[in-house]
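Hey, sorry to bother you again with one of my protein questions. There's a protein on my desk that I can't quite get my head around. No rush at all, and the record is pasted right below.
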Amino acid sequence: MMHNYFTRHDVRLVPVEHVAEGGERISSTRIRALIGQGRLAQADRLLGGTGYEIRGPVETGAGRGRTLGFPTANVRVPHKLLPKDGVYSSVARYEGRDYAALVSIGTNPQFDGKTRTVEAWLRDFHYTIYGRELALRELRYVRDQRLFADVGELVEQMLRDRQSIGYPSYG
């Protein structure tokens, strides 16, 4: 079909053979499935040099992260396939500089959330960046989002989660 269309419109067409990895054809369907499953290292490998990225402006959130000792950047994501709900280690890029980050994707079950959000806590970052763009890449699954017995237990888990981005277990 494409060959006929392009020939009629005097456009040169060079078909490309299917590319396989691990004995399986690389396709957008396969990559979308990996992203949806939270298997982002595999998706990044199939995407080549670019890798999967979440990018959007930072908007005001509920402010709970700051009160818990983890101020987050709430990234407004335009229509984009997001990984499954969970906590991910990541690299956040702001104004040309990279920061180790933890990213929470989901509905914030601890606070009866209804809307799916993307929130990033950046290590060694102390700026207010509302309205500015933040890019998140190299997302790697850490754990499921879940409801804890209380907020104190959630904070203890967040302190442990920091270790996935090289933050010492103390302090």
